[in-house]
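Protein Record: Sequence and Backbone Structure Tokens
======================================================
Tokens: labelled as protein backbone structure tokens, with as many entries as the chain has residues.
Question of interest: how does this chain fold, as expressed in backbone structure tokens?

___
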Amino acid sequence: MAAPEEQDLTQEQTERLLQFQDLTGIESMDQCRRTLEQHNWNIEAAVQDRLNEQEGVPSVFNPLPASRPLNVNTADNRVYNYIVPRPQPRGLLGWGYYLILLPFRFTYYTLLDIFRFALRFIRPDPRSHVTDPVGDVVSFIHDFEEKYGTTHPIFYQGTYSQALNDAKRELRFLLVYLHGDDHQDSDEFCRNTLSSAEVIQFINNRMLFWACSTSKPEGYRVSLALRGNTYPFLAMIMLKDRRMTVVGRLEGVIQPEDFINQLTFIMDANQPYLMTERMEREERNQTQVLRQQQDEAYLASLRADQEKERRRKQEQEQKKWEEEQAVQKKQAEEIRRKTLQEEKVRKSAGLPPEPHADNPDSVKIVFKMPNDSRVERRFLFSQSLMVVHDFLFSLKETPEKFQIVANFPRRVLPCLATKEQPIPPTLKEAGLNRSEVLFVQDLSDD
């Protein structure tokens, strides 16, 4: 983070820069400095503008289009108008002075109006084209402080439209002051009334305060919208019947005490409308929250129903898959059993005939089955042990998988061909005697 150069800033500006960074949390010191410079080092206005940006309100240095209409109701029949007449001359000297200057005043203002009227035919009034509304407001504030000092209410440093939007959003009163540079009463009002400590405290605590000169395009545009007749001109605006409405006008020089009294009267008379707006807005907010909660509950219920439906479909698919697997397994089992039975028949048909008991080469073998039954058959010494295996395989009581075990010594007879012994041995090679008892072991579980 780059620190500002000390020779460019005064000690007061440096303190304001650090304070602004602390209040807003902006890391870039250059950005903080640019923001404060845009607001003429007014830290309150800069912080307010920063908060407006965070709330989604356009920055006063990125304003809304200047051509946007000023949507303010000025036709309310209940508007309060307070016009201060100019004081009449007192005494013979006063009336004499007044009568002497009257022709000069009349001639001056008449010629000035004729000149302005004629000038409009030559070229349009440049104030009718608003190109930089924020610049107009900031320029007026700068000129005001140069002429009258910095003791004044906090000026809203933004466009008139933005001030209306803030007053509407915050449900606050908006006091608009239009300054007539050429009017003879403007200086007295600014020096005596707007610089009064009581007036400053009253305005800062209870309302927003927007001001501009009618010599600026933005101020001139607002004066046309609010229909000001004389200066100083002030208009009190508030949200009434869901529209920003002028509820009071103050025109002419007014003293601080009377100024506060008139504003208090206007605010007290219209406070019920503002309270009604607050209650309606709160009700709308509660209704919106309730609707949002109902929508969330509906969505939660919908998601729960969708989840139930998804699980139901998943269970149905799982059940259907299991049924299909069971059918396939059953079919495979039937095919296997059928194939096994056909293999048993084939093996039985391929067995050589049993030799006669008188045959000297015959071997009598008694098989003890796993179910404790006994099977007896004769074989030849020259026959392969595979013939013995095929005989047992063809029997119904023989397990699907089995092995033949001989005792004394105990050993498993190699009846099937293996990689190490492709051709099984004969009964004689296996060491069997003329009479043997062999055991059939069930290997199906393995």
